[in-house]
User: What shape does this take?
Amino acid sequence: MNVNSFKYSGLANPKSVAITSAARGVRVVTQKKDKQSYPAKSANSTVIAKTRRATAKSVANLIAKSRYRPDLRAAAVARASAIISSQQPKKVHAKRESKGRRATKA
Assistant: This one.
């Protein structure tokens, strides 16, 4: 969440969820509570490359249904949606032709 708060802190909580962009889709990383002192072995990583709605459902199921951190479900779904929006190609609109008297003056 990029918020300085105890709830969203990955250092203060034994369980944390990170959602980042992947080459195609989003990567959901969860921390294992029992392997916290071994950073290389402590993360479970899952890449989800689906449509926006299916990705949101998958992220919600990964977090809430597995009882991992149900309080982070809404924030995780919002972040996944924002990442998918940023991966969409920008639409190029043709510039409209000027009309009227002022257009003919210049």
Q: What stands out?
A: The chain has a mean pLDDT of 84.
